Predict the structure.
Amino acid sequence: MNEERLRRLRDRVRPFPDFPVPGVLFRDISPLLKDPAAFRTLIDLLEDHLRVSFPQIDFIAGLDSRGFLIGPPLAQRLGIGFVPIRKKGKLPGPTESVSYALEYGKAELEIQSDAVEPGQKVVIVDDLLATGGTMRAACELLKRLKAEVLECLVIIELKLLKGSEKLESIPFYSLLQYD
């Protein structure tokens, strides 16, 4: 049953060669988002995984910007709150920030300083894990707030880029894997 549901998702991921730069095969989730049945299947699978894996989760934290598309409906299904992790300069009030390296430069992520309390249990979600830099930075932000990161959860993992290795001891889960 799960294989059939995963195939339904995989069929809605569209490849774009040479985007955003030559040599990159971009995995576009737009067709998945446009299909209400496929999107419901996505949230169902993520919800099922989290309910089986973790008896208590306090928050879903979503990464700017596609983590904002799957995080809130997932949090709503679980009956918990959603916390945004944004690009620098997008959140009001006191924030924590962290810089991290990209393939083509540097970037910064922020979270509001009062987003979570020490010891609260958080799952971080995003659409895709490539090199792992953004996800690792999000983990660092939550650790600074003394939250417990239960897992990093994505729709798509690009296995050849070995991004999950950057997460070290933090559990990681992906629905779809590509070489």
The first strand starts at residue 14 and ends at 17.
